[in-house]
Design goal:
The complex is a heterodimer of chains A (about 350) and B (about 600). Chain A is about 40% helix and about 20% strand. By secondary structure, chain A is an alpha/beta fold. Chain A starts with a helix and ends in a 14-residue tail after the last helix. Residues about 1-25 of chain B have low confidence and may be disordered.
């Protein structure tokens, strides 16, 4: 009797696991769901009530190791793979070549983390929401709206105490389910200009007279359209991407482009350095001048954050991080966190 | 398990073949759609008639009989995709066609509640809808069931089999577009709007040949963008919306102007006009875009034959509060000084109710339909708001030190005095029944914000209730006087559509789960039934085998639970669902009523 029960218990758990996997891998989600439902009902019918608690414990352990949940460090090591979320189509940080090869700075760092753990890297390509809050919800704590997959680790999250400790109107932490850690570089803004039409950018004042391009719905877009009473507005052209803005500069429609320093330096490296230059001007009245970028995990998985944090520290301190940025011709700045006396 | 599935398959095929037998009937014609408001044996358009009055001449269920109303069947959408169910069912020849969350469509035997077929759109991972994965319903035409998907496609299915007949990509979902509204069909053209977040999208209205899915015309709803019409299959320029760029927008901001047509539209045959509402202008920061920013937050009348704009009326020029102007414009006629006025009315997110001349868009009158409006002190003689400038959210450029900007308390909140949920108009009482909400918002510039790991300047906001015992109010409003005739308070915000009937009843549901029927003159609750999950869909009624049926979807969701804070606390215990509930009177009433008459 007992052995039969154990057998049915085992079968049920396998079915449960199977249906989880089924739902994750199946494109036709209806099939996955039907399997899950019927197997569960059938199992519960055949298992004695006393055994129910075993089933629950067993199922939970399977659930944790199944492929849809974020997992603790030990389970990642045991499973032999780690799921790291990177933004889709976001050069030079993370993007896919036309052959489908994963490229970029964040991809290279993710690979270093997986290698240090001795596990396979599985990339999750994120579609960005309106703000990073949406991405943390979709990829770290709640799961994707369609398939509910979560990542173990997310790249390119802000390392900003004010942001991570932000509270809502009833006093609760907005990001209480997320742990943000391991700053790996410092980001800021930068202008690239064509030196024949605009030889020098001593101050932003130049853009009352010289046309400048900017990516839509970014801080530079807000800045150029509203700062100083909107005095740059008439000279500002908006583009859906930095690539488009650079093409417009090369074609002579605009004299300069403003954007993220990483992206500006990376795109500038593809142009003739005798014709295009990175400006050194300041950005007065621009809210956030500089910020750090790090990693995020679900708040339950601190051990994973310590292990990944060690990998980042090692990379930053031994020059490995600098080398990755160099490979992509992108300016690297070490976060203040690592600067020692 | 194998046996279970086989049984299920057999059961399905039996249901299916009986379904085919059941639906081997006439297809939906232009005439059916034009007459929809007057015919009682079907519902073949969103709004129970393209004017969107949501009035039925049915009276068997009335003030006397409604207490005996009872559910006759309930149909579960199944699966784990239990999110907001904002759809309005359509019924033709004993078959109900209804959509569910995650772009699903169901054909159901309207007598028994048995499923005939189900279609589930295969959605790509990359979709990013702003406000829940909802859908508001299908359009019927010929033997097609047409609906829009979260990845911004129009899909036409065969009404008997559920198989795809044509599919059209309206826009690229990767650019931030989606479709959640119900399309409408006018003279063989299927017409849809588009949703999109703050990704620099431009609102448009699209017309396709309903039978083939071929493009007919596209009309952008932002000044400066070229419209197109297809002549003999060739895409040709059809005039720039608003004539030229740069009249009401500074610099190049018109290029990414917003004004999404996310709620779809209505149509009036007597003026041959489509009426589409438009969303807020982009970007959110109004200080970046001095000017009226046409045609954002407006109602736009479009000629369905030419795709040209006939007139527009802007409810919130230079919007700074996220007061989308998408709410439905409902055509209605009324008599004044012995003359019939061809009017149209809309209850805007901004808290004002507008009565317009639908022939030319002229303002007839307007008044607040909510208890308090903070951002404007009233409307001028042309219907333009008289702004309270200090109630406009501040300029982020003024808060340059990266600190939280000044907090402005504005009322209504950006979810509006009324949101998407459609109101109803009764020919009998002459009143509009408006599902509204009383709430305000704190709004400020939020410099501690990020987008793709880049610093970002967002708007921070919190929605707050203003009374302890209610947010939602169902109001009966007289469009001739602006008077509120009666009101019914509801604890949670109202988020479902309204229906009214010749039986003297007003129908709506609430997030608490109740389907409710009110006396259309007094607002007294004459019937309520709890459907088990919140109601955020729109009820319909039709006649079948001599009996009057009423259907509504149950399934809590939509935009309200997505915003945190105090309002979320009121609704956090409401459970999700996904069920069509259908009601009628016991059979004996049929003969009783005949006897009475």
């Amino acid at each position: 009797m007992r052995s039969i029960n154990s057998l049915s218990l085992f079968t049920c758990s396998l079915l449960t696991l199977g249906s989880w996997l089924g739902e994750y891998f199946s494109n036709d989600k209806i099939l996955g769901r039907i399997t899950l439902k019927s197997s569960k009902t059938k199992c519960l019918d055949t298992v004695f009530y006393k055994e129910l608690s075993y089933l629950i414990v067993f199922s939970i352990s399977l659930l944790v190791t199944s492929t849809v949940q974020a997992r603790p460090y030990d389970d990642i090591i045991e499973a032999g793979n780690i799921r790291i979320a990177v933004y889709d189509n976001y050069p030079p940080f993370s993007y896919q070549s036309s052959e489908g090869e994963a490229k970029g700075i964040d991809v290279a760092i993710a690979k270093k983390i997986a290698d240090a753990f001795g596990v396979e890297l599985e990339l999750i390509w994120m579609t960005a929401g309106e703000t990073t809050d949406d991405d943390l919800r979709n990829y770290i704590w709640k799961g994707h709206i369609i398939h509910r997959v979560k990542a173990d680790l997310m790249m390119r999250t802000p390392y900003d105490r004010v942001y991570s400790q932000k509270r809502d109107d009833v006093g609760l932490l907005v990001h209480e389910l997320v742990h943000m850690f391991a700053p790996y570089h410092s980001e800021t803004w930068k202008i690239v200009h064509e030196i024949e039409r605009l030889p020098d950018v001593p101050t932003m004042s130049m853009f009352q007279y010289h046309p400048i391009g900017v990516e839509n719905d970014s801080v530079p877009y807000f800045y150029l359209n509203s700062a100083f009473g909107g005095r740059f507005r008439e000279q500002t052209s908006v583009y859906t991407s930095n690539d488009e803005a650079f093409s417009a500069m090369v074609e002579g429609e605009i004299d300069a482009v403003m954007g993220l320093r990483s992206q500006m330096s990376n795109l500038h490296a593809e142009l003739d350095p005798d014709k295009y230059q990175l400006a050194e001007n300041a950005f007065p009245m621009l809210g956030k001048q500089k910020w750090d970028i790090g990693l995020a995990v679900h708040n339950d998985y601190r051990a994973l954050s310590y292990a990944a944090g060690d990998v980042i520290t090692e990379l930053v301190m031994t020059g490995g991080m600098q080398a990755i940025f160099d490979k992509y011709n992108t300016i690297y700045e070490k976060p203040a966190y690592y600067v020692t006396e | 398990m194998r046996i279970t599935q086989l049984t299920k398959a057999i059961a399905l095929s039996i249901a299916f073949s009986s379904g085919v037998a059941l639906t081997a009937t006439a297809s939906v014609t232009d005439k059916d759609i034009k007459d929809d408001a007057a015919t009682t044996d079907d519902v073949v358009s969103y709004g129970l008639g393209l004017q969107g009055q949501r009035y039925s001449p049915l009276a068997k269920v009335n003030k006397d009989t409604v207490e005996d109303l009872r559910p006759v069947w309930a149909f579960s959408f199944g699966g784990e995709k239990q999110r907001g169910q904002e759809s309005q069912p359509l019924i033709k020849d004993g078959v109900m066609y209804v959509t569910a969350s995650y772009s699903r469509v169901y054909a159901i035997d309207a007598r028994t509640g048995e499923e005939l077929w189900q279609y589930e759109a295969r959605l790509p991972d990359g979709i990013m809808p702003c406000c829940d994965v909802i859908n508001r319903g299908v359009a019927l035409y010929d033997d097609l069931v047409i609906f829009g998907t979260l990845d911004a496609k129009l899909v036409a299915l065969n009404k008997d089999t559920g198989k795809t007949v044509w599919k059209k990509k309206v826009e690229n979902y990767k650019a931030g577009y989606a479709i959640t509204s119900a399309p409408i069909v006018v003279d063989g053209k299927v017409i849809t709007g588009i949703s999109g977040g703050e990704f620099g999208i431009v609102g448009k209205v699209y017309a396709y040949d309903a039978k083939t899915g071929k493009e007919v015309w596209i009309r952008p709803t932002v000044e400066g963008h070229m419209g197109y019409i297809w002549k003999d299959g060739k895409k040709t320029e059809n005039g720039i919306s608003g004539g030229e760029a740069g009249q009401t927008w500074p610099a190049e901001l018109w290029k990414s102007g917003g004004a999404a047509t996310w709620l779809g539209g209505t149509y009036d045959a007597s003026t041959n006009s489509l009426f589409f509402g438009t969303g807020n202008p982009a970007p959110w920061n109004s200080h970046m875009r001095p000017g009226d920013n046409l045609f954002s937050s407006s109602r736009v009348a479009i000629d369905p034959d030419t795709g040209k704009i006939k007139w527009h009326f802007q409810t919130t020029p230079h919007d700074g509060w996220d007061y989308d102007g998408v709410n439905e414009l409902v055509s209605f006629d009324y008599e004044e000084d012995g003359k019939m006025v061809k009017a149209a009315a809309t209850a805007d997110r901004n808290g004002f109710f507008y009565v317009l001349n639908r022939e030319n868009g002229e303002f007839i009158r307007g008044f607040p339909f909510v208890d308090e409006v903070s951002w404007a002190s009233g409307l001028d003689k042309n219907g333009r708001p008289i702004y309270v400038e200090e109630n406009r959210p501040g300029n982020p450029a003024a808060a340059e030190d990266g600190k939280k900007g000044e907090v402005v308390v504005a009322r209504p909140s950006f979810l509006g005095g009324k949101n998407w949920m459609p109101m109803a108009y009764s020919k009998d009482t002459g009143y509009f029944y408006v599902p509204s909400n009383e709430w305000e918002m704190d709004i400020w510039n939020e410099p501690t914000s990020y987008k793709k790991g880049a610093a970002y300047l967002g708007a921070g906001f919190t929605i707050k209730s203003v009374a302890d015992d209610h947010i939602g109010i169902l109001r009966a409003i007289d469009p001739k006087t602006g008077k509120e005739v009666w009101r019914h308070n509801n604890f949670a915000p109202l988020w479902g559509g309204v229906l009214t009937t010749a039986g003297g009843l007003v129908w709506t549901g609430n997030p608490e789960g109740y389907l409710m029927a009110f006396d259309d003159k007094t607002g007294e609750v004459l019937y309520k039934f709890n459907t088990g999950s919140g109601i955020v869909g729109s009820p319909v009624t039709w006649e079948q085998d001599g009996e009057q049926f009423i259907s509504v979807l149950s399934g809590w969701g939509g935009a309200v639970p997505l915003w945190g804070g105090e309002v979320a606390k009121r609704v956090k215990d409401f459970n999700q669902g996904g069920t069509v509930w259908t009601f009628k009177l016991p059979k004996r009433y049929e003969s009783n009523n005949i006897a009475k008459n």
